[in-house]
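Annotated sample (chain length 157).
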Amino acid sequence: MATNIMSISIHPSARKSFDEKASGLLSLIKESRNQLSTPNSFPSEILPTANITQKDIAGDLEGFCKDLQGNTIARIFHFNGKRYELDFEGYKFLKALADRIYDIWDIKQKLSISYIEDKIFSWIKDVFILGGTQNSFCEFLIYVSERDIKFTTVWIP
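Output written by the structure step:
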C-alpha cells in the first residue's frame, strides 16, 4: 500500500490530546455584544457610501480582533443573526494548541502555523453551528490538509 507523500501523520496519543483540547475550545465560545460604538468614542465625520445587504455577502462572516501592534487577540463568527467570539483567553488556548500541533516535525514541513490556526477555528465553528460532528479535529485537519496540499513545479529562469 503506497502512502500519500502529502499526508500528515500524528501519533495516536497526540491525536487524543489534540482532539480533547480542540473540543475544550467549544466551551470558550461566547455570544458577543455587537457594539458598534461606545458612548465616549470619537465622533467620525466619515459617512458610509454604500449599504451591504445579505445578498452581497457570499459565505460565512468571520472576523478578527487585533491589538495595537496588529496581533490577533480574538476570532469572531456570525450565526443565526448573532455574533459569537473566541475572546482573548479562548484565543490564547487556540494559539497554544496550534503551536503544539506545529511542533510536530511532519506537520511543520507541510503546514503553516496560520493554516493550523484557521483550521482549528473552522472546526470549532462548524461543530458549534452543527451541534456535533462525525470527525474529530485531527481527522478534520488530516482531511483538509490532504485536500489543500498540492505538488507544484516551479521553474525559475
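Annotation: Strands lie at 29-31, 62-66, 72-79, 82-86.
Annotation: The two ends are 38 Å apart (CA to CA).
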